[in-house]
Amino acid sequence: DAKTTQPPSMDCAEGRAANLPCNHSTISGNEYVYWYRQIHSQGPQYIIHGLKNNETNEMASLIITEDRKSSTLILPHATLRDTAVYYCTRNNAGNMLTFGGGTRLMVKP
Amino acid sequence: KAGVTQTPRYLIKTRGQQVTLSCSPISGHRSVSWYQQTPGQGLQFLFEYFSETQRNKGNFPGRFSGRQFSNSRSEMNVSTLELGDSALYLCASSFDLGGGPDTQYFGPGTRLTVL
What we know:
The structure holds two protein chains of two kinds.
Chain A: E1 9-13, E2 18-23, E3 32-38, E4 45-50, E5 55-56, E6 61-64, E7 70-75, E8 84-91, E9 97-99, E10 103-108
Parallel strand pairs in A: 1-10
Antiparallel strand pairs in A: 2-7, 3-4, 3-8, 5-6, 6-7, 8-9, 8-10
Chain B: E1 5-7, E2 10-13, E3 19-24, E4 31-38, E5 42-50, E6 53-57, E7 64-68, E8 74-78, E9 87-94, E10 105-106, E11 110-114
């Protein structure tokens, strides 16, 4: 199964770090892990991606385990505007994103 | 730089009709992919076009088709609409530099309602 597995929902206090886990135990060696988020049924917004090394950009950090079977997206200081559905996906060279159910993150004041 | 644009944003059709949705990728992007999002099935890959050729196809019936023009703009068509085709249809584009996956950027989607 090429899908990813994520908890259906999580809560986070405003200003705290949000850590969103993802399981992709069947990922192949050339597949990248991509994270997107979707707010109010708008188009998914790209956040970050990685292959085997940890990555950081202005939005988030991505931690990938050494065996690449799981990863964690970290939003260092969550705000109310980070409330969204977060998708962990896999992307092979064919540009076919495989989405799981996503995690609905609720940031609370 | 302008993002991915999709037209129309909302559409209402009746069963049996056909529909054409349009997508304009980010300038310079050569790959266009289409996805269907429904509450029951989530986000599912439909197909991908590159250089006016369909390069990949998801598990959808032949009623779903698409094409890409020389300027990379893409259209998708759904014929003989069914109630279950009601969904948010998303288009995503990427540079496709070759040699591996490239980041896809999504448009706002077209909300199709079939009555």
